[in-house]
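Practice problem 4.
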């Protein structure tokens, strides 16, 4: 699975020692390279040095990236085919990192024209008139990327350009190239242009891309401009739409030199790595909880009740982790409100012990609950993320039930994988027909641990869960709740949910 950060909108200032005129550029020995030559040579340089060619891309090393590299080395425009949430756009944006960091352009050029290769009649006249004194500007690679989400209302003017009526009113003739307001594609000249969801373009708009892909020129309002554009064109599409007859014109498919299939993470470790990399967590989420969510996402993706043609986005597991972290933060906030005002420490003391002078004041400070997610927090995911899943038509009305079942199965699988072979009889001995252990969304870690007390095998269980030798009370509570839920799901412990939403473990399964 591939995910990276999009190019930054903040453009850095060019180094002061770069040539400022065409004469200085020639004297520095600068040579013109096409965009595809840049991509090829910079990719080869990274290969030879052993540097990371696509930083931040996860799970594509042995499948997708070799095909992408072959396309770049061959100089082929390409289309990425994959279901939603497979990181196609992120992979496309990562290609910008293979461009030169700075490239010279004619100052003021709308088409980013290279001083050694002017395109428009106006720029050619400017170069002839100014000669070596022609001012040269420098364009950062982050500004050499253009992107358009294909929608049915996209026009030729959006992509290619149209006649500017204001310039016509100023006295220019229709045959004058200066009357054209250029669209997104020519304005990305000397860069990378991406069309997302290509099949959603109307057929007449797809026709407008034919010359750009093959002849590298553009046509506007019936007259042709011989503007040999220099760009790398890449598109993304859903396989079903791409191969559906009539959704994309055959000549346009034929003009893409490479067709690369993307996929979801092939194993659990890659799914976990993706969640760790991409999720913006507002609270601590232990490893075993992340594993439950990763297994849950994979189970939903493979479920026969879910429409496989739409797929289950990798954003599902990422959003699930963020939702669980938010539930932990909510619990911490609500439990803090229950502390007596005199016992709540000031903000600057949170997370540390009081100093000797503070202790001398004899103020009974109580640290509020730290935000640590538990497996019980994952229950909220089944309702909040239901809209991210397209179910088969026969499953209408059973969506929450299906997701709940898959979440329980993912929890049980994680329990077996993490704690298989471990003696957990100390937990089952805690309860009998009358005794119970109560937990829930608003049960604090201190309250839960007080009910459990000293349990034989607890330290080994927490170690297996990756919580270390000295877990915090909140981490220990997260481990205890996971063990109790796992014992219930493996039919070794009873469970009951009260009307108030609290969960009680105890008795026979």
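Answer key:
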């Amino acid at each position: 699975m591939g995910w990276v950060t999009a190019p930054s909108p903040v453009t850095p200032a060019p180094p002061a020692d770069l040539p400022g005129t065409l004469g200085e550029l020639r004297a520095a020995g600068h040579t013109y390279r096409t965009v595809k030559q840049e991509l090829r040579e910079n990719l080869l340089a990274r290969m030879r040095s052993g540097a990371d060619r696509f930083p931040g891309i996860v799970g594509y090393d042995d499948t997708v990236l070799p095909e992408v590299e072959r396309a770049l080395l061959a100089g082929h425009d390409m289309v990425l085919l994959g279901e939603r949430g497979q990181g196609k756009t992120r992979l496309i944006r990562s290609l910008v990192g293979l461009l030169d960091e700075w490239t010279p352009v004619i100052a003021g050029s709308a088409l980013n024209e290279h001083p050694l290769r002017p395109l428009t009649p106006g720029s050619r006249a400017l170069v002839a008139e100014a000669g070596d004194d022609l001012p040269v500007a420098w364009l950062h690679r982050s500004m050499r990327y253009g992107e358009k989400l294909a929608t049915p209302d996209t026009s030729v003017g959006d992509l290619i350009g149209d006649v500017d009526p204001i310039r016509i009113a100023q006295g220019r003739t229709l045959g004058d190239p200066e009357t054209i307001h250029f669209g997104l594609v020519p304005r990305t000249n000397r860069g990378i242009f991406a069309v997302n969801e290509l099949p959603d373009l109307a057929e007449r708009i797809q026709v407008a891309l034919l010359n750009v892909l093959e002849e590298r020129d553009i046509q506007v309002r019936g007259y042709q401009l011989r503007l040999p554009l220099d760009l790398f064109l890449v598109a993304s599409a859903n396989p079903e739409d791409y191969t559906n007859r009539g959704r994309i014109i055959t000549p346009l498919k034929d003009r893409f030199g490479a067709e690369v299939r993307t996929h979801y993470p092939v194993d659990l470790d890659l799914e976990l790595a993706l969640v760790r990399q991409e999720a913006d967590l507002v609270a601590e989420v232990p490893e075993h909880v992340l594993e439950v969510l990763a297994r849950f996402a994979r189970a939903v993706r493979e479920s026969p009740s879910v429409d496989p043609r739409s797929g289950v986005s990798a954003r599902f597991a990422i959003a699930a982790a963020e939702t669980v972290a938010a539930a932990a933060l909510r619990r911490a906030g609500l439990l803090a409100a229950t502390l007596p005002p005199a016992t709540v420490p000031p903000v600057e003391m949170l997370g540390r012990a009081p100093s000797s002078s503070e202790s001398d004041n004899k103020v009974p400070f109580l640290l509020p609950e730290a935000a640590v997610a538990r497996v019980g927090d994952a229950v909220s995911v089944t309702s909040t993320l239901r809209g991210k899943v397209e179910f088969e038509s026969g499953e209408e009305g059973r969506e929450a039930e299906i997701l709940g079942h898959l979440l329980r199965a993912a929890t049980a699988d994680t329990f077996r994988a993490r704690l298989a072979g471990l003696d957990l009889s100390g937990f089952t001995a805690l309860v009998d027909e009358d005794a119970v252990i109560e937990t829930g969304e608003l049960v604090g870690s201190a309250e839960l641990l007080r009910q459990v007390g000293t349990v034989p095998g607890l330290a080994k269980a927490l170690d297996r869960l990756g919580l270390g030798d000295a877990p915090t009370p909140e981490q220990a509570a997260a481990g205890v709740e996971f063990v109790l839920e796992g014992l219930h799901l493996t039919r070794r412990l009873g469970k009951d949910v009260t009307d108030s939403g609290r969960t009680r473990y105890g008795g026979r399964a």
